[in-house]
Amino acid sequence: MPAELTTDLNRAAEFLRRGELVAFATETVYGLGANALDVRAVARVFAAKQRPFFDPLIVHLSSADELNTVVEDVPKIARQLIDQFWPGPLTLVLTKKEIVPDLVTAGLPGVAVRVPDHPQARELIRRSGVPVAAPSANPFGRISPTTAEHVLQHLGNEIDLVLDGGPCRIGVESTVLQIIPEGAPVLLRPGGLTREAIEAEIGPICLPEGSRNESESQTAPGQLPKHYAPQKKLIVAEDWRHIPAGSCVGVLALTFLCREASERFGHIETLSATGDLNEAASNFFAALRRLDDNQKIEVIYATPFPAHGLGLALNDRLARAAR
Question: Which residue has the higher pLDDT, 257 or 132?
Fold first, then answer.
């Protein structure tokens, strides 16, 4: 039976309480939510997405006051980040309490938690009365959804309800930061909160050392080499002039290229007329989805983004989608 589409918060909260799957909007992308303390409900998330069990989930809370329900302690540096950036697109990996099922954390001692900056999402979690485990509401490894229609298109027959919260404001997933007992925090995934903003608050942060293979438990979501991918082949080209011409070629670009480019390719998706990275991020997944759905396009090329601000997160998504 196809998922129900609703704006009824009480109905969505009741679905979560009784172990059913509810997709809901956040400021980043739509999440596929389940009661994080209900192992059967969490297992349904993995089954619906066809997600491997070694890829952990993010637990969403309605406020920072609920942290003590799922984490053992909150280090001083974590509290500093929470005070500055929550609600918002920042996920922190902290030591979990035993009440959090190992399925949520891929058997690892840390749980990824955040408070979304979307009033409807926070109210849904508050009314449900449970922490909500929620990866992006799309088939595993595919393009993340930024509207309710995207969720229905790809997961409508696998889940129970979609709470329509409108288009997502930021458009890329949250930044994931691991707080370790000693040393600088580790940036596990670039996302909607920039590295520059974090470092302005707490000083330098580290990048993870090495990489895990595709059968090992991942420290955080979105770390697998291939992720966020369209069905069609995606190739990153440093310069649009190096992209072969053709009516079957689609191009994803930050800004308008030029008239010559528009005549050279089958379709161009421009993410921001002014080159604004915030606007580009909010349009990124929807534009990539349009190219993927365009029947005239056989291959997608994308040009990289500036390596600062949200460009770091966008380049990360491009690199994974192109693998």
Answer: 132
